[in-house]
């Protein structure tokens, strides 16, 4: 039995091919898995699209149970984020910069990769649902656009987690336990169990439950200024702050900090360094997954049956999963506020399947209810916010030598509720004819309701000792509008609703016995409604004013009607997609064409053209004129919404078994064009962490994916997979020239080469037992962090704030970075560059004994204790490094009763 969290299941699906060996005295052979990648049940080797899949038994054999490990075994897939429940999926290099976690619920791009739990799409902007994959039947991964069958979030691919359903034939039960020890970290343990019971000939039930506590390994250490700790810098605060908040002598203030001679305490310092003594803790980044799934299946008759399932899960995390590179080692962080995240969801799905004459009919639907409660350290705002000096410094003090910047400690608190309801009705023809049709209707209604409270101001400053903020508007809000707690400086209260209807179909025709052509299409209409308020802007009224273009309404929300009218007339602002109620509506039709040739029983060749898209995203502060009117920001206005970005994909593929079925090779070469690639970027009209979405330009991607399996003997199976990528920005929109990476630059987060190899050797033991040894090695190449060339700016700020640089590698991409209008600490112009997430190699080993009823396994993950750079997180304006778990040694035991 193999039930691990989602990321581990996906690894297996892309890293290996299932093996049917050692089950009897017959020679080893490759197993053929039935998949539903085209919404029909077909052999994986006969589906004329790139798809990889692995069943539950093969998932067990791979022997991976770490959250971070998934990325090492997915050569063409990237999970980019900051920890459990805070990750984004990218496939085949179609990656961009997503909103930071503080604003992912308010202002995030729609996912480019769809994630399905059985028939239910559960992808969400900014924070993909982190489903623990217990009691799994198989995982399917479909790289490349899948929009005609799977919709808007399938621009770059689709991942499907298929669970085990109630079995009407027999009783079964089992459990799986795991205990492990991480170097310089806490112990981890997990237990999972399931049972399946036919209650009558027509009624069956299945239940699976789990609890997985993943111990931490990162320490929250005491802040010691001068030893890599946070000092603070008036120079940084002054240069990023608005003109009204400029300090009189920031350089002199920096000469009077805790690290300065003669300064022995914060009371003597002109720049106060934050303290975290009460929060010092070893191994503070814990994560616990707990939940259960219930399934009920009923057969009405031979032709009709219904399945109802409910999944309930809670994910609790504490601490952070990134270290501070200014400190020694790769397991120390400095945080000044508790970091907590509770992510709970309930998912109910239903599927009715039946047969009408020559048609198979499927109606499926689901309801998802998700609650997120987050508390995060937001001290980093001081290093990037336009109102930094306003919130922490007495900049208005007329006596220059008396000006001080006080304790910058801050926090962010979020309460978000997300709901999603989907319905799909589809038909598959079953006639014995040379043509086949799949057609259906789809409806999707998503809502994200969030209240985010920012504690930014130092309440020792008299003007902030009792803020009592209230919202500017009340339509679409989720709170009572205030007053909010006295220490809260700013509030986002937003409701974002996305409603989609679609009609889709695919027609296949057998031109000959071996040659088949198909065409697919999907028409969709999406209504995007963005309402709510902040403590400074009535968001509902502002967006509606752009829809009506009523001069009085534009003036009422603080905009100059004549200037807005001129910006719309010149094309600087687009508002055509908004109606008078401020609802953004977009509709279109996308297509897919395919031709496949069955060369013989073992070899399939195919060629595909497919289209994918992401819908526009409404900006909360759209239309605003940049506060900074110098350099690149002169006359700049934030887009009212980012426009749809599209991906056109061309691919050639091979699927084949060779040498009497001993070798399997599946490979796909592809070329993709992205138009108007969406990205998140900082807001020059407000503060750098109130991001907005924009279109950076166009890009192209060329690549080759391949996976191979070799049955070297009846006792040895070897799997390998690799990805070659060549990504390039081919056009950059004028307002981002000199800010985003330039034409010819690579897209972020994806390596030119990644690959892995896995070998599993079986040997016979006494009685009915067998032993095995499993080893795997994975390589991930260098990747660039983010879309914006601001690494030198961040590195300069890091040196001023911490007294030392990060030591991270930077790739220079321009002589001048135009995203700032100030010079560096030496008075020189900033160059443009991005941080490099450097390459790494990970190795895992396992040895076990099984008799097909029970299994015991000893394993070592990360044998050589490699500390990989998974992600360089810059969301608080100085770099933090998200890393993998250190060397971990553990024992698994499982038992199944049939």
Any key phrases for this structure?
single chain; mainly beta; 10 helices; disordered N terminus; 5-stranded mixed β-sheet; 45 strands; 898 residues; 22-stranded antiparallel beta barrel; globular
Short description:
By secondary structure, the chain is mainly beta. Strand 41 and strand 42 form a beta hairpin.
What would you say this structure looks like, in words?
- With 898 residues, the chain is mainly β.
- 8% of the residues lie in helices and 46% in strands.
- The chain is globular.
- The N and C termini lie close together (12 Å).
- Mean pLDDT is 89; it is low at 1-24.
Low-confidence stretches: 1-24
Number of helices: 10
What share of residues are in beta strands?
over 45%
How would you state the average pLDDT, rounded?
A: 89
The major sheet is characterized as: 22 strands, antiparallel, barrel
Kindly provide the radius of gyration, computed on alpha-carbon positions and rounded to a whole number of angstroms.
28 Å
Percent of residues in helices comes to under 10%
Q: How many beta strands in the DSSP annotation?
A: 45
